[in-house]
Amino acid sequence: MTVPERQLHLQLITRKLVCFTGGILLLLAAVIYPLMSYGREQPPILVLIVFMCGLLGGFVSIQQRLPTLSLAEMTSLTRSWLSITLIPINGGVFSLVFMFMFMGGILEGSLFPQYGYRAITDTASFYDWMQNNYPISNHEVAKLIFWSFVAGFSERLVPQVIGKVSGQIDTDDDGKDKTD
């Protein structure tokens, strides 16, 4: 019995996704993490975890959508590594954008992680500031990890939030356009 063409494409795409996502996770864990932590007291573990969760969210998202794709779409995906890997990469980037939105207080509420803020001093670098601004409790770290996965899984969520926030810049408290 032969495996239908659609199933072959699905298997090939899944293999490519697993190889890419696994490779990126291994690269982050085995190479990037030691390089970033060399000579530092605190390694940048939370930033890497956030990126990894976004990457995994993107991976799960595309895996769930694969069965609904047409044969032509699947054929196109099997021919291009870029098309397959772009969604998980976007997920990782979107998770970092969300983290910065949380850190900056742009997104606040009981569902979002709360940070303990420390100012950047004249002697501290941006890297040091990132290392010293963590969610205030383990409970808040769990929220950050959850939202990092969601940012990767729902590829339209972060662009929608950015659009909404940037739309608020152009309006005053009365809701009228400032350019009027």
Strand-helix topology:
Blueprint: H1 5-37, H2 45-65, H3 71-78, H4 81-103, H5 126-132, H6 138-153, H7 157-169
Can you put this structure into words, describing what you see?
With 180 residues, this protein is an all-alpha fold. It has one domain. The chain is 67% helix and 0% strand. It is built from 7 helices and no strands. Helix 2 crosses helix 4 and helix 4 runs antiparallel to helix 6. The chain is globular.
* Overall pLDDT: 81
**Global morphology:** globular
Number of domains: 1
Give me the secondary-structure category: mainly alpha
Number of helices in the DSSP assignment: 7
Report helical residue fraction: 55-70%
Order of helices and strands: HHHHHHH
Oligomer kind: single chain
- Give a count of the beta strands, DSSP E runs of length 2 or more: 0
What's the story with the biggest beta sheet?
none
Task: Estimate what percentage of residues fall within beta strands.
Answer: under 5%
The rounded distance between the terminal residues' Cα atoms is 69 Å
- Cα radius of gyration in angstroms: 20 Å
Low-confidence stretches: none
